[in-house]
Design goal:
CATH superfamily of the largest domain: Type I PLP-dependent aspartate aminotransferase-like (Major domain)
Largest sheet: 7 strands, mixed
CATH class of the largest domain: Alpha Beta
CATH architecture of the largest domain: 3-Layer(aba) Sandwich
Structural class: alpha/beta
Distance between the termini: 53 Å
Number of domains: 2
Strand content: 15-25%
Number of strands: 14
CATH topology of the largest domain: Aspartate Aminotransferase, domain 2
Strand order of the largest sheet: 4-10-9-8-7-5-6
């Protein structure tokens, strides 16, 4: 059947995205990497830019582990032994001993009874929200939660769902009060670190408020936290928002694809919750797991993070984060202060955001502009992401370019 009619409409949609500056545009393709050298962190080479070197200021690899020789060696050793893919879903001979080892190790890392791996953090959130939501469940979600939570909620058919104003505890309490009597179970869902802003959920307050209402729901009030950007990069030992706020979520979602530098998503919780989700989460049941080699690399990342070297890496990451944040403020830029390595430059204008990103690209810096609908109108920004791979000279170089842009 001809696609011409549909393509005509699609063309208009695309034209609107490009003309308004909201299109992400053609993806930049990395063709080579130069590892850290001297006072420089890694440099990246892009298709179409020849020998031009780029500093990455838009990577989720907060600990800078993915290029390490010992990480590569761990992945290669497992691939040689078990092959490059699992070949099946978990319940059809797709479970290997390293999947089990990693799940145990993640549970221990977070102080939970059990863990469970998914193919990505995005589907992990869906794989938690969808099975835990019944026709007698109330869902309450922060208004700035990640797209994976938003779509996870959209998949469900709960008794009642609502949102509370971003990190507004008075509004959360109000939404809980109004939800009493509308369902037997309540899920309160939030990001740990809000990825577009770098701020964190006040988990200690959320837990306290939920405990106040727990007896008013027959099946309790359950806290679900997606801390994909927090795990590995936030808190004194990299245990994320739970560690930073000294509070525990009932269900914690994390990722292996950001600070750990590998791939895949996971959750940790009680043994009974994990057992239930293995039996009911379609995103888990009908999808291949991550490879055995990725499991081995992720376990190596955990070993590094929990070692004395890990403390040094986290310390350097926090130092570079503060250096960059202070530099932005000294130059007169607006940012959202915090301890997480997501450091946003608040531009609040789509076209100006594009201009700054293009200027940085021209001068060898990769940065990402975020515009509506990824962020609310008026919150247009450049999301800078600091990595432990960045050196003081790298940070100074980027700040110098931003100063040059402002002067021009």
């Amino acid at each position: 059947m001809s696609l011409q009619k549909l393509e005509k409409t699609i063309a208009l949609n695309l034209e609107d995205l490009y003309s308004s500056g909201r299109a992400k545009g053609k993806e930049k393709v990395v063709v080579n990497v130069k590892k850290a050298f001297g006072t420089h962190g890694p440099r990246y080479f892009l298709e179409g830019f020849g020998d031009k070197e780029f500093i990455k200021m838009n990577a989720n690899s907060y600990l800078g582990l993915s290029l390490r020789d010992d990480m590569v060696q761990a992945e290669e050793e497992a691939a040689r032994k078990f092959g490059v893919g699992p070949g099946a879903v978990r319940f059809i001979s797709g479970t290997y001993n390293m999947h089990i080892q990693l799940e145990k190790k993640l549970a221990e890392f977070h102080g939970k009874e059990a863990g469970m791996i998914f193919s990505s953090a995005y589907v992990t959130s869906m794989g938690v929200i969808y099975p835990l939501t019944t026709a007698e469940t109330v869902l309450i979600s922060d208004e700035l939660n990640h797209n994976c939570i938003i779509n996870g909620v959209r998949l469900t058919r709960p008794a009642h769902k609502t949102i509370y104003k971003h990190n507004n505890m008075a509004d959360l309490e109000k939404q809980l009060e109004e939800a009493v009597g509308k369902g037997r179970r309540c899920l309160v869902i939030t990001d740990g670190i809000f990825s577009m802003r770098g701020d964190h959920a006040p988990l200690h307050e959320i837990v306290e408020i939920c405990q106040k209402f727990d007896e008013k729901f027959e099946e309790g009030v359950i806290t679900v936290v997606d801390d994909s950007h927090g795990v590995g990069s936030f808190g004194e030992t990299g245990r994320g928002t739970e560690e930073y706020t000294r509070a525990k979520a009932d269900v914690l979602i994390g990722t292996l694809g950001k600070a750990f530098g590998v791939n895949g998503g996971y959750l940790v919780s009680s043994a009974r919750i994990i057992e239930f989700l293995r039996e009911t989460a379609p995103m888990y049941i009908y999808s291949n797991p991550i490879t055995v080699s990725e499991c081995n690399a992720a376990m190596k990342a955990l070993d590094i993070l929990t070692s004395e070297e890990g403390k040094t890496i986290i310390g350097h990451l926090h130092k570079m984060t503060k250096k960059f944040e202070s530099g932005l403020l000294d130059l007169g830029f607006e940012t959202i202060k915090g301890d997480h390595p997501v450091v946003p430059l608040m531009v609040r204008d789509t076209q100006e955001t594009r201009k700054i990103v293009d200027f940085l690209l021209e001068h060898g810096v990769l940065a990402t502009g975020l515009n509506f609908p990824v962020v609310p109108k008026g919150d247009e920004e450049i999301r800078f992401q600091v990595s432990a791979e960045h050196t003081e000279q790298d940070i100074d170089q980027v700040l110098s370019l931003l100063k040059k842009y402002k002067e021009q």
